[in-house]
Amino acid sequence: MNSSRAADWRGRGGYFRWQPAGNDAASVEIFHVEMGDPDAPVLLLIHGWPTSSMDWFEVASQLSARFRVCALDFPGYGFSDKPVRWGYRLSRDAELIEFYVSEVIGADAGVVVAHDRGDSVALLLAARSADDRPAMRIEHLVLANGNIFLPLSNLTGAQRQILDERSWPEVAALLTPASLAAGLGATTYTPPRKAGDPEVAALTTAFSHDNGIAVLHETIQYLVERSKDEQAWLTALAGASFPVTVVWGLCDTVSPPRVASYAWNEYLMLRPGRNRLYFIPDANHYLQVDRPDAFVRVLLHALEPAAEQRIGALWAEPGAPLLVDSSRQRLPVAADVLRAAVPPQ
Predict the structure, then answer these.
(1) What whole-number distance in Å separates Cα of residue 315 and Cα of residue 333?
(2) Rounded to whole angstroms, how far apart are CA atoms 47 and 121?
(3) How many CB atoms lie within 10 A of CB 310?
(4) In the 8-state DSSP scheme, what is residue 333?
């Protein structure tokens, strides 16, 4: 299926060649898009699984008025190369991001906005930053709907079948770019997207490029990789120096709001600095597609906060995004309050 949306996005971008360190994997052609003033502050958009940088189609255009917006397709995704048995790993994608920012964009710092699997790449970058070995300095990290704590996720039956090497051959024999796009459209967008919807057509085009279905089992193994390290990454994030914003679509059932709430309560709520938690009503897993205008306004609100920010709706209309919480010093426990109120006898 040819998609005018996909053709538009691809027409905005170009390619560069990259090879991971170690020479144990072939070099690959990486698709990327840059929009906005080259001298503006860098804003890096990182996509998730199994989609591509095209997830940012609408928000990138809006943000390019104020930022140098940069996005790429990881190997195995979108319009980048998708070699079979290439060795897809989060660590390689973090290495690619560092190369992209330093060597292709020519920057040493930027705002990072990540979604879904991209959250895992961003957390790995943040952990490297905490270890004082970053190739890029994160100025502000924004994490959107993704399973950043897997025990609280709701992986779908399809995800589990694609992940399992025993069931994958049967799934691969039946799965097509169109059926994968239709399945995502029906379950991860609000309202659901049907066949013929521009987003579903664009997904079909991206999955069709370079036989993307063939590498799905390999690319989804990031879930195994992150399950081993997610606690360490979240702990490192809690100690990082840059602000962190979490923004979540409330209709998501795969990465439900409890994932965001857990990460916030356990690792971010008591962090020093201007950290924020936002919820966007009427948005599903692909919140940047469902509510692009709201997503952009939340992002700008988080990056350029007013002196006094009130908890609650950002504007007085139904469906307005909610600033749910801001980081603060530890609140006193009830026992401390009682001891202060009742002098000792």
Answers:
(1) 33
(2) 9
(3) 9
(4) P
Q: Is the pLDDT of residue 88 over 80?
A: yes
Residue pointed to by tokens 């397709």: 73
The 10s digit of each residue's pLDDT in 292-344 is 999 999 999 999 876 667 899 999 999 999 999 999 876 666 667 666 666 66
* 90-99 and 222-238 helices, crossing angle to 10°: 60
Judge contact between 242 and 138, C-beta under 8 A.
yes
Distance CA(80)–CA(289), nearest Å, equals: 21
Through-space distance between the first and last CA atoms of the chain, rounded to whole angstroms: 80
Q: Can you list the alpha helix ranges (DSSP code H) found in the chain? A: 4-12, 57-63, 90-99, 117-130, 157-163, 168-174, 177-187, 198-208, 216-219, 222-238, 257-263, 287-290, 292-303, 334-341
Q: Token pair for residue 160?
A: 């589990």
Delineate the domains of the chain, giving CATH numbers in brackets.
4-341 (3.40.50.1820)
Alpha-carbon distance of 289 to 56, in angstroms, equals: 7
pLDDT recorded at residue 295: 98
Query: 7: helix, coil or strand?
Result: helix
Rounded Cα distance, 145 and 340, in Å: 41
Task: At 317, list the tokens.
Answer: 């209309």
Residue 129 confidence class, pLDDT cut points 50, 70, 90: confident
pLDDT at 306: 65
* Token pair of 328 as six digits: 């603060």
